[in-house]
Design brief:
This protein is α/β, with parallel strands linked by helices. The chain is globular, with a radius of gyration of 32 Å.
Length: 831
């Protein structure tokens, strides 16, 4: 329905507010600009079409205000909301970030809103397949959701016409969406009350005026008791559940009068103790994020697990790999998302690379938890933690070398507890076993994240499976995964690791053997892990070994270092039939032509892009000769590798053998030439030989003398024709043996801007006294920037004008790079 209150604001607004005959992306941009200009609408949340956040200066800038579905044309509102709900449910977005106060749906005529809490129960439907395609409006799941929410939407939806209700729409946005942080509260349940506590320790504990050491020492009252007191009040900070004597009998601290009360029976003192809060605004802002108290179904569960909240002094010990607490919590949310809310009661969990056991922190059913580790010293640490409240059983902790020891029960002289052996040896019980691990990441010879450097080729698992998984056997984590898959069939696996087994060419044989189905996947920066400095992703995967499927591709959730959901990231396996970019480059090797440069072309992923460069001399290390016959192809390779910045998120992405479409795009080819000429990884230097890469004539740059080579300007002018190779010339499709006269290259506007900036830089350089007239871009940079004591070029110059010229060139190159990026994806150089 349309709320009658807002109809009174209907006013005559220009019909230009109707967004007819435009594409969906343009519609989203216009709606964002016209109606949500004061907000942040730039963030991409998975496959949700449109998201609204407070502006970046707002203290609550990370709290979503609105998630919306966008459609072109005149669309049915209910259908749009159903598709949005299926999109959210499929990704379980609400479990990984705070949901918004409102959901929305809009097309070119109207915008509709519904409070999130009006429909949130839909996400708790039992036995529902959330993995369906949301845009399939004929699926039984789509029709079921539509049937469930149609009457709810009829009672709770606000619909506004852009034209007729413009004033009412602006009023609604300013008085509801803008203030939605007051309404967007995350429900507290048994799977998130521990992660919320960890955040509470950072924000709320420091503003409570109390002597924590004395409380613990004299009365055994801990910070978690204050947290529990906070949980069991309502959203107005009043203890409206005080009548629940069962709860209050188990609370050591109670919230009262905007502070805390410690009843005298809990301290042995004559009077109740009163504890104040130093910064009440900070307190209120924190609890605005969560809906209190927890649902009554979780009251007893949370109270009975107070020991989970007892702080553990967990630290990385020598030889152990420590998993950061935020990723432990998130990984357990992903397991709950796939296995169900009650998974800890239904499944047994074995961490077979447990170290000191911190990966199991937060799990609550100690009778279903098992932990083994290579070193007895770590077993001792876990036993000490049990004495201080850790939720583990001594009988379920044991020393076990997973890559060497056999699966033999202790009753028969082996190392496995009989209860665990009974599970892994029983076909049906194995289906309810989760192997939950963060295994060592080392490969033969050591490396980052190594556990026992250089020993991966001595393990019995290596010897057993090396002929099956080939090069992947050098990786310790791959050895863990293949043994689990082969010898504990049908179990579930929750594992942290790098992405090699999903993407790398060396893991083709591994993927052929390891055919568990990937069900969940998220990525996080590796440098959030202790003692890891690399700029690459670590992943957490949930595998179902009972379902057989070779990995091909998956949409992963990507989080930043603070645990905020960034975007979805497509992860694809290397396709052996298709090949990688270095396979493509081999088609253009020219060992007979006259050398004008050398290209270095190491491995095929972003991780090795810093090794892709052009030099004058050949050092025989992953190099190929550049000649007039393959110049354009080599420039395409170079530009494709460098036009997209390497980040931690794309670090392991593979550059691929492209489609043939690039052959027919002359502008893409010449843009690559321009990009290569002026890129800093073009290390051609006149100090090591003739510089064939000067992109200007003497007249263009006021050179004081003649250049030694005019190859590049002759090539650009069409005066140099490549000799026929075993493929068509790039500037038109023709037979390989056909000879013709080339025409001059006409560069795009973006490439011309790069040339203009480069021309100004060359002129400034050649105007300096005593410079090498044949100087290259590298020589120019070296002249102005110089070298440091380590013989590395300085990053900046003291010459202000030079810095301005290079800044102009850099900006022009960035524009050209963004244009090239479109071709990189369009022609299949990257997925």
């Amino acid at each position: 329905m349309v709320n009658d209150y807002f109809r009174i604001f209907a006013a005559s607004i220009a019909s230009t507010m109707i967004y007819n005959d435009i594409r969906e992306e343009e519609l989203k941009n216009k709606v964002a600009k016209d109606w949500f200009g004061e907000f942040d609408t730039s963030r991409i949340i998975g496959n949700i079409d449109f998201s609204v956040f407070p502006n970046k200066d707002d203290i609550f800038h990370n709290i979503p205000l609105l998630w919306a579905e966008a459609k072109t044309g005149n669309y049915d509102t209910v259908t749009m909301f159903v598709q949005l709900i299926l999109t959210i449910g499929k990704a379980r977005t609400f479990t990984r970030m705070l949901p918004p106060a409102f959901l929305g749906a809009f097309d070119y005529q109207k915008f509709a809103f519904v409070p999130y809490n009006a429909i949130e129960d839909i996400f708790s439907i039992n036995d529902f397949n959330w993995k369906v395609t949301p845009s399939n409006h004929e699926s039984k799941e789509f029709l079921l959701v539509k049937e469930r929410i149609e009457s709810i939407l009829a009672e709770n939806t606000f619909v506004f016409s852009y034209e007729k209700d413009a004033e009412a729409l602006r009023f609604f946005i300013s008085h509801n969406i803008a203030k939605a942080t007051d309404k967007a509260r995350q429900t507290i349940n048994k799977n998130n009350f521990l992660p919320i506590y960890l955040r509470w320790l950072e924000v709320i504990k420091p503003i409570i005026s109390v002597d924590w050491d004395r409380l613990k020492r004299e009365f055994n009252i801990l910070d978690c008791d204050f947290y529990l007191a906070d949980l069991f009040v309502d959203d107005k900070d009043t203890d409206d559940i005080a009548d629940d004597t069962a709860i209050y009998a188990n609370l050591f601290v109670q919230f009262e009068n905007q502070g805390y009360k410690i009843p005298r029976e809990n301290t042995g003192l004559i009077f109740d103790s009163i504890v104040s809060i130093k910064q009440k605004d900070v307190y209120k802002n924190f609890w605005r994020l969560y809906k209190r108290p927890p649902h009554s179904a979780y009251h007893d569960y949370i109270i009975e697990r107070r020991e989970l909240l007892v702080p553990q002094d967990i630290r990385e010990r020598k030889g152990a790999f420590f998993t950061p607490r935020q990723w432990v919590s998130l990984s357990q949310q992903y397991l709950a998302d796939y296995l169900g809310e009650d998974w800890q009661e239904e499944y047994h969990v074995w961490d077979c690379a447990a170290g000191t056991g911190n990966l199991l922190t937060g799990l609550t059913n100690k009778y279903n938890l098992w932990a083994s580790t290579l070193d007895q010293a770590d077993v001792n640490v876990m036993q000490e933690r049990i004495a201080h409240g850790a939720m583990l059983l001594n009988s379920h902790i044991f020393q076990f070398d997973f890559l060497n020891d056999d699966f033999i029960p202790q009753s028969k002289g082996g190392k496995l507890p009989d209860g665990l052996y009974d599970i892994i040896s029983n076909e049906e019980k194995r289906k309810k076993l989760v192997i939950y691990i963060n295994p060592p990441y080392a490969e033969a010879g050591g490396g980052v994240g190594k556990h026992k450097a250089g020993v991966s080729t001595t393990h019995s698992v290596y010897k057993k499976y090396k002929d099956h998984i080939k090069k992947a056997a050098n990786e310790l984590f791959a050895q863990f995964l293949i043994r689990i898959y082969k010898e504990i069939p049908d179990c579930k696996i929750g594992s942290f690791s790098k992405l090699k087994h999903l993407q790398a060419p060396n893991f083709v044989d591994f993927r052929s053997e390891y055919q568990a189905k990937l069900q969940r996947l998220f990525l996080m920066p590796a440098n959030t892990f202790d003692n890891v400095t690399g700029n690459f992703p670590i992943s957490f995967q949930v595998w179902d070994c009972n379902i057989k499927e070779e990995f091909k591709t998956f949409m992963a959730d990507a989080y930043d270092k603070k645990g905020k959901l960034l975007t979805e990231k497509k992860i694809s396996a290397y396709n052996k039939e298709r090949g990688v970019i270095n396979d493509w480059l081999r088609n253009f090797y020219d060992k007979k032509g006259e050398q004008i440069g050398i290209i270095h072309n190491n491995k095929n992923d972003f991780q090795h892009n810093n090794q892709v460069r052009i030099t004058t001399e050949d050092i025989k290390d992953h190099t190929n000769i550049i000649t007039k016959n393959n110049l354009i192809q080599m420039c395409i390779y170079f530009a494709v590798r460098h036009c997209i910045p390497a980040t931690w998120l794309n670090d392991r992405d593979q550059f691929l053998f492209p489609k043939e479409d690039w052959l027919y795009d002359r502008e893409f080819q010449t843009d690559c030439l321009a990009f290569t000429l002026f890129h800093s990884q073009n290390r051609i230097t006149a100090q090591e030989g003739i510089n064939h890469w000067i992109p200007f004539t003497e007249q263009e740059v006021d050179a004081p003398d003649n250049f030694s080579s005019h190859f590049m300007t002759d090539y650009i002018a069409g005066k140099v024709s490549p000799s026929p190779l075993s493929h068509p010339d790039l500037f038109r499709v023709c037979e390989p043996t056909e000879v013709y006269q080339r025409s001059p290259i006409v560069f795009s506007a973006e490439a011309q801007a790069v040339f203009a900036a480069g021309r100004a830089l060359w002129r400034y350089y050649l105007a300096q006294p005593k410079v090498n007239v044949n100087g290259s871009l590298y020589d120019i940079r070296l002249h102005f920037q110089g070298k440091n004591a380590q013989e590395k070029m300085n990053s900046k110059s003291e010459d202000t004008q030079y810095n301005q010229l290079t800044d102009t060139l850099r900006k022009a190159m960035e524009v050209l790079a963004r244009k090239l990026e479109e071709g990189v994806y369009a022609y299949g150089f990257l997925e």
